[in-house]
UniProtKB/TrEMBL annotation:
Belongs to the Iojap/RsfS family. NCBIfam families: rsfS_iojap_ybeB. Functions as a ribosomal silencing factor. Interacts with ribosomal protein uL14 (rplN), blocking formation of intersubunit bridge B8. Prevents association of the 30S and 50S ribosomal subunits and the formation of functional ribosomes, thus repressing translation. It is found in: Cytoplasm. Interacts with ribosomal protein uL14 (rplN). Pfam families: RsfS (PF02410). Gene3D superfamilies: Beta Polymerase, domain 2. Keywords: Cytoplasm, Repressor, Translation regulation. This is Ribosomal silencing factor RsfS. One of its GO terms (cellular component) is cytoplasm.
Amino acid sequence: MSAPEESLDLARVAGQAAADKLADEVIGLDVSELVVITDVFLVCSGETERQVAAIVDGIEEALLTERRRKPLRREGERDARWVLLDYGDIVVHVQHAEDRAFYALERLWRDAPVIDLQIDEDPTA
């Protein structure tokens, strides 16, 4: 059984918002069979703390305006090295590129299926 459609929808909205802020390597992992606390991990990264903060802002704005969802919990904003946004159904990890390489969440959760986020790389097209 895979993640519910509502969780996949939230992940796609968040993934597109991250891509719109030029996030690197935006991926969604279906962790619904591996953990009980959430359905999807969305992982992306930015090159600087400023970009990480902009990606976080973009994701929060998109999920609020498009799906009327606010994060239940938010951590790591002060340093903007690894910001976690917990929406219940999805958990978003926005990491600085160096931290992403070091912690390698994709490797840690390699048993989780990758989700097709259907990201439009050129939203003006």
